[in-house]
Amino acid sequence: MNVRHRLTGSRRGVLLGLAIVLAVIAGACSPSTDSVTTAPSRDVTSAEESSTPGDRVALSGSEEAVVQSWLSDWWEAESTNVQSDIDALVGVCMRSQGFEYVEYVVEPPEGWDYGIALESFDYPLSSEEAAESGYGVFANFEERERAFELRLAIKNPNEAIYGALDQDARVEYDIAWLGFPRPPSDLVAPKGAEVDEMGVPLDWYEQWEVDESGGCRGAAEREIAEELDTVEIPPEWSETLAVGVASRVNSDPDFVDAERVWARCMNAAGYQATTITDLGGYISLLFQDVSGTARITQETVEVNGESIQIALPDYDDMVVADALDAERDLATTDVACRDESGVVETFLELKERFTREIVAELFSAN
Fold it and tell me: Three-class SS of residue 74?
């Protein structure tokens, strides 16, 4: 199956499935919400200045801790274990306050992070991995898709516990768990009222005394972060870092030059691409070919001791095999062009440099 010339010059996103996977992983522990974090304080008087060769920005100890936490991949490497540890602490905390809570973490299927190397030069991809399974999209494809469907069928026991509570008890439960109440789904803002991004009246939350530290969930996250020697980064800082670092890297002349060399290499091999995310379009085309062969079958499976009917996909093995071959070809070409251009090394060096710069700016402004 040749997909090199099936993609036009317009950019195409990577598989939507990856975003869904990450959402499922993040939301596996009870009803989900954003984590609550606190800003680290600047400790200049007691901090030793970092040794910073070249044009690296010298930082205080507190600033350096934020940089290393931001650059660390501990969450991706240990996501399931971390979530399990957090949820165990949440359970102890909730039960100590008289609430029923069942520790519940759905382990992701093997290969849940497939396709991540298509999102950025930030994610490594070896020639061995590329030759064996490409980006991991179509290797064990049917098994992984079926595993996802099975996991979606597993019910979170805390949803039933929460659903059985009346509205007043739900508010108390939420404040203990998250530090603040979640508005009911049928809440309607009065005409002309000021609302937040979710359409909730701003004065709705003022009815209760909230826990700014994030309740049991926030306390558990802080404890685990401390054990892992990481620093909690405020959401607004995370957004500034994510947007700022990407913008500065993408506009840096060294990266622009390296990316152009990578793109010329890919184009010479028959792939139309100007940046790494363009390759997702080729995978999307292959995915369309594979998904078009899906036959949905109803099967009875045992989930937590309960027999349930679930729709499971079955794909044409030959089409999946052809897609995997095409994916391997794309990935091995990508790796060769990364090596030729040095784009990964350039990206990582600039990412660290600009992360340090922005962290210093954030501390100076606070």
Answer: helix
- What does the pLDDT look like over 157-177, one tens digit per residue? 898 899 999 988 999 999 999
Residue 110 to residue 85: CA distance in whole angstroms: 20
Please tell me the distance from the alpha carbon of residue 143 to that of residue 187, in angstroms, as a whole number: 41
Q: What is the reported pTM?
A: 0.66
Closest among 117, 115, 121, 118 to 137, alpha carbons compared: 115
* 124-133, long-range: CB < 8 A, 24+ apart: 124/344, 125/331, 125/334, 125/335, 125/338, 126/335, 127/332, 127/335, 127/336, 129/331, 130/328, 130/331, 130/332, 130/334, 130/335, 131/328, 131/331, 131/332, 132/328, 133/324, 133/328
Cβ atoms 300, 309 nearer than 8 A: yes
Q: Which residues, at least 6 apart from 200, have a Cβ–Cβ distance to it below 8 Å?
A: 183, 187, 189
Q: If you write DSSP's letter for every residue of 287-350 in order, what string do you get?
A: HHHHHTT-EEEEEEEEETTEEEEEEEEE--HHHHHHHHHHHHHHHHHHHHHHHHHTHHHHHHHH
Under 8 Å CB-to-CB from 76, ≥6 apart: which residues?
Answer: 113
User: What does the alpha-carbon distance between residue 311 and residue 360 come to, in Å, rounded to a whole number?
Assistant: 52
Q: In sequence order, what are the residues at sequence separation of 6 or more whose Cβ sits closer than 8 angstroms to the Cβ of residue 58?
A: 49, 50, 52
Amino acid (1-letter code) at residue 288: Q
By CB neighbour count within 10 A (0-12 exposed, 13-18 middle, 19+ buried), where does 71 fall? middle
pLDDT in tens, 297-344: 888 877 666 787 888 888 999 999 999 999 999 999 999 999 999 999
Reduce the DSSP state of residue 195 to 3 states and report it.
strand
